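Homework help thread (please don't just give me the answer)

Our assignment gives two proteins as sequence + structure token strings and asks us to describe the second one. The first is just a warm-up. Here they are:
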Amino acid sequence: MAVALAAAVFTHEAALRADKPAAKPASTTPPAACRKLPALGCVPGGYFLRGTAKGMWRNQRPQQRVWVDTFYMDQTEVTVRAYEACVRAGKCKPARTVYDDFSRPLQPKVGVSWFAAKAFCEANGKHLPTEAEWEKAARGTDGRVYPWGDTKATCKEAVIKDRRGRSCGVKKEGGQANKGRTFEVRSRKPNQFGLYDMSGNAWEWTADWYTSSYAKCGAACSKPNPRGPCDGAEKCPGRYYRVVRGGSWYYDADQATTTYRNRHYPKNKPYHHYGFRCAASTSEATALHPKR
């Protein structure tokens, strides 16, 4: 697997030299300045390097620089505590978590459908991040392969499967202990934007419909602030999957990169332990935290 991963990626410095922008933004207005806001990391507007230029993962091609406006991202995956508070307030529907030992207050809330994730974000004045927003938030502005750089993921940096087993060898309580479990959020160091667990812990839903490659998606995936096939519409003919990102406690390092793309049915059937975090545009962030 290490050989395959090495073939799939190359240093971000080389990638940046070879890459060209996919499109220029229609407006020349400078990106909005970042503000320091509670529980949110600010991702400054501008180009970022998306995808990979070569290697085994064809759905990550072509590699391009894509423009995304300034936005904010939850510092952590939405926790069990936060989700259950939304349920008690009558703004979210209950979401069942099948495995034992996945419902501690500060573990990421998993087992939610794409619809439930979207509803939670909207109920809290935010939105489910687009795939481009998610990748920029994870990858930063220099094209790094992992949220911390180009060094392959280990359990020091992320909650993943290693030689000891799933979740870094930590067993879950209850039955099937070897399947492991998620850790509480903030158990690993944050990335350059102050975001935790952008690699590992729980897969995270994004807003976009899945496409087998950015090339096949065309302009919808390469224009400024892309929203994916059908521009993120509720229905998209011929599309059945939404995108999940980031890897998890259950899988090893090759799925914990900033570019790895996975897919699943938005109803989350068959059931998987997917989680999510929310994003906020600058206008959403201002509404949540008015300037003084």
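The one we have to describe:
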Amino acid sequence: MARLGLAAGLLLFAATARGAESARVEMTIGAETPRTAATAQQWYEVLTAIGVDGLQIRQRNPGEDPEVVDQGTKRSPVYRVYGLLTARNELIVPGHRFSIRDRDAVADWLKQLREEGVDKASGAANGPFGLTADQLAKLREDLGRTIETSTVDLSLVDALPMWSEKLRHEVALDPAAQPALAAAEKNREELRGLSLGVGLTYLVRAAGLVVVPAGERGGDVVLVVRPTDPARESWPIGFEPGAKPEKLVPDIYEFLTVEIEDTAATDVLASLSERLELPMLFDQYALARQGIDLPTVMINLPEKRITYSMLLGKTLSQANLKYELRVDEADRPFAWITTARPAR
């Protein structure tokens, strides 16, 4: 797992605008570590030589990510680029990762940005997260690896490096996620048998964090753990099934006669999970934000003949919850249980 650290007062360079181009490109680069003064000078010289306008290199602020913003007009386009300078002396911009030896590639990227605009230069038009279909397929395959050990009482601090070692894709931590990571409670659910993708996204969700894939030059994709942002797309906790529910959970529409009186919701749900052989993952982040203490909720249902699916829905409704049948990256089913009202 990559650690992203920052220190105040790193350095600041500024460059004046160079010759006129088809579009003006202004760039700010945030350095992720305090030991980048020498490498920052190298990048300053490279970027000014190839015509970047208004260049600044400074410390990275928490929550900042590579992006390109179109702030000009059709007649006078201006693209403001925010890039990240890593501890490995690599420059990350949307869809690309450059080394200091990639001067020509950087120049080609700037030329493409000026002439073809943000979407073409960043790869945003390729697909979700700006990734190609091949990148998405490889990422899903990698995240589909099975969790083989128990996750009960597993902390996020321990899980991130342990699971990162099992993945081909790098997992990086946004500095803004550090406080939530340190304060995260231990996991309560058994995730063994599900995918590493579900395990990773589920544990960070409970801490108020998300996983955002970032495409880079050379086809590499980094999984960035960062604070939740409702306006920003993130890797989901499971996916909508392609198969019908009865194919994934054979007994889900089987009828039974049931009567429940003053029974803890957690006991009813545990029994259903075992009977259906269906893992149930609880959206602890949403439950906490809406003040739902599930162990204290008591379930009462009059004697009735219903399906397991209906029983699950009625049980959850008494706790102001709902469920969705989802599959992990390897198409293994689980029930995602969250609040009836969305949590922000």
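TA reply:
I won't write it for you, but here's a hint about the kind of observation we're looking for: Residues 1-21 have pLDDT under 50 and may be disordered.
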